[in-house]
Design brief:
- The protein has about 170 residues and is mainly β.
- It has a domain of about 110 residues: Thrombin, subunit H (Beta Barrel).
- Helices cover about 15% and strands about 35% of the residues.
- It has 2 helices and 10 strands.
- Strand 7 and strand 8 form a beta hairpin.
Length: about 170
């Protein structure tokens, strides 16, 4: 009897260790403001099917994301897609962590822009309400001039799952 209790206790401890080990460490102060947005459509059988993806940029500390209209809209049916997964890059050498969801809060088809808001918690149920997300500010010290160098950071369709950085 005592042997069964010890074995059960050990298995429970291993289960707790494994479940915590699967959740990645997230240091929000080191995250990139550029995120990957994966758009989903609900199928006839109520399954969420990924339709496409694109880049987005966190534009305020509360997790508002600017992306493209064509990333979040079904162009065939002229309606927003049904769900949005947000993948955050904590290390540019690794794939982003796709533990976040967002809601569409605004869009302009003619300008090809859309605005998403990160949900209040990640997929593990951890609250994001106290997180201050690093964001890309629109303010610059000096306006850009012709022939200035440009760095583009994003998740193009041809770039695979990791972030792509291009300098020109």
């Amino acid at each position: 009897m005592m042997k069964r209790i010890l074995i059960s206790l050990m298995m429970a401890l291993v289960g707790v260790t494994v479940s915590h080990a699967s959740e990645p460490v997230k240091n929000y102060s080191s995250m990139e403001p550029t995120v990957k947005v994966v758009a989903y459509k609900k199928s006839f059988t109520d399954q969420m099917v990924p339709i496409g993806s694109g880049s987005g940029t966190v534009i305020n500390a509360e997790g508002r994301i600017l992306t493209n209209y064509h990333v979040v809209f079904d162009e065939n049916e002229f309606v927003p897609l049904d769900g949005f997964e947000v993948c955050i890059t904590f290390n540019v050498q690794e794939e982003p962590i796709c533990d976040y969801t967002a809601q569409l809060i605004g869009y302009d088809k003619d300008l090809d822009i859309a605005l998403l808001q990160l949900s209040g918690e990640d997929v593990y149920g951890n609250s994001l309400k106290s997180v201050r997300f690093p964001f890309l500010s629109h303010r610059v010290a000096q306006p850009p001039k012709e022939r200035d160098s440009v760095t583009v950071v994003g998740y193009p369709g041809s770039g695979g799952d990791s972030i792509t950085i291009s300098r020109k």
